[in-house]
């Protein structure tokens, strides 16, 4: 093996954290076997997430109040952008459902210069049986119905694992604080000229991540927020 | 008896116009002035309606609504919708500002904390504004 820490010295992993005190340390430890720079944004969790992060090797950024996952992502990217030498920004989930190997492969793809943005997709691989069937159908329908996702020919519209290159991270402004940020990012990419690639990823649906995952009912809130947001905001 | 279509059309147009108005240009001075004038007018019309309910009923029948109170109810629904929407958008604006404030604070504090934890060494090569503004030149 190559000295991995050096190889990924220009990569920053951004992990939004809300009430993940039981798992966050393991997730950080796992991620840091590959990526030397990890920033966890504690989104004002009432539990011990912040102290758990502080006890790890990850950078800790703490929202003084709870703002939502989109806001936490934007904060983490802002923090990472200010660090010297940061060229790739990976958004990663705190609940352990993403695999570090997938993130590393996506960074390598971005490094070839073939794409400005690499999005994880659960549906590029033939075998999608690990995805719960309700989720599988709903995500597929969303990807098929969303004009932005269609324009980008995405197979998975709401995957939390993404790699942004520096110019994209500098330009992106996530203003949807809640869960609508995923749709906002996709529509931003659709309107921009960035080259977007998808890369197959495997999501580990554990009981824990299942219990933390966003419910499909929340889709109603997302649609409302996206629909009524001010134009040009 | 006039066609009830008239009032239906009026109400639907009013709701659609309000939606477009609020979502499009909320910060315009004219829109803000318009809202205030509309509020005062609405109050005055209501005072008039209380004093002379028969006039209101006559107007209501002229545009296809049965009673004057029904007309007031419809107007109230339109007014309520516009107030709700106005509040929603106003809260979004407040939200955005609170977010920027909290974000700036969080990043400042994190830089101190993480420096103390030994994770940040030396001055950073570049300062990046956390507030939305002019993005940095890519590759600068």
TrEMBL record, chain A:
Listed CDD domains: DPM_DPG-synthase_like
TM segment ranges: none
Secretion signal, residue range per the UniProt entry: none
Span of domain Glycosyltransferase 2-like: 13-170
Family the UniProt entry places it in: Belongs to the glycosyltransferase 2 family.
Name of the protein: Glycosyltransferase family 2 protein
Lineage, broadest ranks: Bacteria, Bacillati, Actinomycetota, Actinomycetes, Pseudonocardiales
């Amino acid at each position: 093996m190559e000295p991995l820490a050096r190889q990924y010295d220009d990569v920053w992993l951004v992990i939004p954290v809300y009430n993940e005190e039981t798992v966050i340390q393991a997730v950080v430890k796992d991620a840091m076997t590959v990526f030397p720079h990890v920033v966890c944004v504690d989104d004002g969790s009432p539990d011990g997430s912040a102290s758990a992060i502080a006890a790890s090797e990850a950078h800790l950024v703490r929202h003084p109040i709870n703002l939502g996952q989109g806001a936490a992502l934007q904060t983490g990217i802002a923090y990472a952008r200010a660090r010297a030498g940061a060229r790739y920004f990976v958004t990663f989930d705190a609940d352990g459902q993403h695999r570090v190997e997938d993130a590393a492969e996506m960074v390598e793809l971005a490094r070839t210069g073939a794409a400005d943005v690499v999005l994880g997709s659960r549906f590029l691989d033939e075998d999608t049986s690990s995805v719960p069937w309700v989720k599988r159908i709903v995500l597929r329908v969303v990807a098929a119905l969303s004009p932005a996702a269609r324009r980008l020919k995405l197979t998975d519209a709401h995957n939390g694992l993404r790699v942004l290159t520096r110019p994209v991270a500098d330009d992106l402004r996530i203003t949807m604080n809640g869960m609508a940020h995923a749709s906002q990012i996709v529509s931003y990419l659709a309107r921009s000229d960035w080259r977007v690639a998808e890369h197959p990823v495997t999501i580990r649906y554990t009981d824990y991540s299942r219990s933390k995952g966003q419910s499909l009912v929340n889709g109603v809130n997302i649609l409302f927020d996206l629909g009524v947001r001010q134009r040009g905001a | 008896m006039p066609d009830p279509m008239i009032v239906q059309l009026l109400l639907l147009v009013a709701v659609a116009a309000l939606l477009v108005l609020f979502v499009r240009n909320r910060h315009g001075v004219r829109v803000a002035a318009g809202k205030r004038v509309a509020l005062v007018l609405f109050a005055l019309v209501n005072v008039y309606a209380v004093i002379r309910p028969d006039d209101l009923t006559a107007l209501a029948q002229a545009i296809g609504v049965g009673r004057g109170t029904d007309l007031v109810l419809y107007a109230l629904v339109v007014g309520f919708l516009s107030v709700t929407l106005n509040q929603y958008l106003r809260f979004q604006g407040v939200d955005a500002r609170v977010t920027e404030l909290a974000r700036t604070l969080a990043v400042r504090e994190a830089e101190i904390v993480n420096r103390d934890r030994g994770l940040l060494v030396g001055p950073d090569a570049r300062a990046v504004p956390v507030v939305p503004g002019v993005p940095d030149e890519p590759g600068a």
